[in-house]
Amino acid sequence: MKCSNFLMILVIAGLLSACNNTKEISNEESNDIPAQENVIGNVPDMLHYGEGYKDGMKVVTLHTAYNDPKSVSAIISIENVGDTPLNADSLAFSLYDDTEDLTYQGTIAANKNPADRNLQPNDKITLNITFNIPILNDEYRLTVESFNSTDTTPWLVDDLKVEG
After folding, report:
1. Half-sphere exposure for 36 (CA within 13 Å, toward CB)
2. Which residue range(s) make up the domain with 99?
3. Same domain, 104 and 28
4. Quick one: which of 69, 104, 155, 164 is 20 to 30 A from 128 by CA?
5. Dihedral of the CA atoms 92, 94, 119, 115 (nearest 10)?
6. Coil, helix or strand for 106?
7. 74: nearest Cα among 100, 108, 40
8. In this structure, are 80 and 117 located in the same domain?
9. Residue 128 and residue 109 in contact, taking contact as beta carbons nearer than 8 Å
10. Is residue 60 situated within a structural domain?
């Protein structure tokens, strides 16, 4: 009888210990959540190739950029993460040349892009955006803006191999 009481006490102690560990883990996890939100909320001053940002309706990523004679092309993907359709034609693509204090507006060339740029929720599209530039410089800032978002976190566009 003493042995079974002892076993019963060990089982109860083990169960109580497990319940306490579960509570400790829950407290630790809840303490980590604000820290993770802060890391996600800290947007860098400048994004780089392969990085993206999310605003309320879309995720935008700049994959690469390259130069052609008198232009810069940027490969950008847009994913609709909202609940309503999104038309990629409604976005404004801007390339800023800080050395010359100039801004160039990007165009979605029909011969380099899909004809249907209407994104339903969860759809994704990759676009080739062209900026006509008379003189190519070493680096630029690129932004993608929309009428319903104030987030204009720029990407650094560099490594364009300017010959000179």
Report:
1. 6
2. 52-157
3. no
4. 164
5. 100
6. coil
7. 108
8. yes
9. yes
10. yes
Structure tokens at 41: 């909320």
Strand partners, 92: 145
Whether residue 93 sits in one domain with residue 12:
no
The residues that bridge with 52 in the sheet, in sequence order, are: 61
**Domain at 94, CATH number:** 2.60.40.4170
Choose among 66, 64, 67: nearest CA to 75.
64
Indicate the residue type of 33: I
User: DSSP state, 47?
Assistant: B
- Give the count of domains, the chain: 2
Which amino acid is located at 74 in the chain?
Answer: A
Query: Are 57 and 103 part of one and the same domain?
Result: yes
**Tens-place pLDDT, residues 37-86:** 323 344 458 899 999 988 878 999 999 999 987 899 999 999 999 999 99
How far is residue 17 from each of residues 5, 23, 24, 27, 80, measured CA to CA in Å?
18, 10, 11, 15, 46
**Exposure pattern of 131-148 as b/e (b: 16+ CB <10 Å)?**
bebeebbeebbbbbebee
Q: Let me know if residue 113 belongs to a domain.
A: yes
pTM to 2 decimal places:
0.70
Alpha-carbon distance of 89 to 47, in angstroms, equals: 23
The tokens describing 136, both together, are 């190519």
In this structure, is residue 102 part of a structural domain? yes
Q: Is residue 163 part of a domain?
A: no
